[in-house]
Amino acid sequence: MSAMNFGQKSFKPRPPDKGSFPLDHDGECKKFKENFMECLRKHHNDNNQCRLQTMEYLQCRMERDLMTKEPMKKLGFADMDATKEQSS
Predict the structure, then answer these.
(1) In terms of CB atoms within 10 Å, which end of the chain has fewer, N or C?
(2) Where is this region: Disordered (predicted)?
C-alpha cells in the first residue's frame, strides 16, 4: 500500500538567514578559534563558559570581512556588549 500525502505541504529548502560566509583560508582569526577550542577542552565542552572567546572570534571575523558586521547584541551577546566596549 502506498502512502498518501494529501494535504501535506511540500518542503521547499531555503538558504540560511545569514547566508554563506567565506572560510578563513589565510588563518586571520586562527588564534581566536584556538582560544575558543582550548576553552571548550578546559570546560568539558560547556560553551557557556566560553562566551567571551566566541564573541572575540566573531568580532575578528567581522573586522576582516569574513562575515557580515552585526551588533553583538543581535548575535546573542547583549549582556556582554557593554562590558567589551568599556574594556577596549
Answers:
(1) N
(2) 1-24
In the prediction, which pLDDT does 85 show? 44
Report residue 51 as a C-alpha cell: 562566551
Cα first-last separation, the chain: 67
pTM: 0.69
**For 9-27, how does the pLDDT look when each residue is reduced to its tens digit (9 = 90+)?**
777 777 666 666 778 989 9
